[in-house]
Amino acid sequence: MNIVETAIPGVLILEPRVFKDARGSFCETYNESRMAEAGLPTRWVQDNFSISKKNVVRGIHYQVQNTQGKLVRVTHGTVWDVVVDLRRSSPTFGQHVAVKLSGENGRMFLIPEGFGHGFVVLSDIAGFAYKVTDYYSPTGERTLLWNDPELRIAWPISAADAIVSEKDQQGKLLRDAEIFP
Description:
mainly beta
């Protein structure tokens, strides 16, 4: 597995070896011993999976209780995935990193605790799988407004074309959000 550092320390792109032939492809998406050797998290308590259609925006979500690290990947289709540093004490507070994830490229995004996470679907449909380091906490869940101008995220979609849930439309601006110390 190739590990690519991003502009925000701790936020990593993982590129597994993908073996392709006439039948299709195979890759290892998780190996506890290899993750441990690389100094990456190995304790995951929950796996989640969503299917979304083109132009669906999910997020930007995070939990202030039962904070979650995430290992995310796309099983089929393509998404533009973004994380925002919500740790007030961090030198990269309020900054973001984005990466294109697809079933074809096999890339994964490792997101530490203390970050908000969201994505937009670029293909007709996408399957999105992710592991988390702590359990879902409905009372601890928070949402940043996906298109908060202060975040300066250059989403590859217009607000008019975005399909956003009622909950995500009510997301907070960064300046008003409950964040991490």
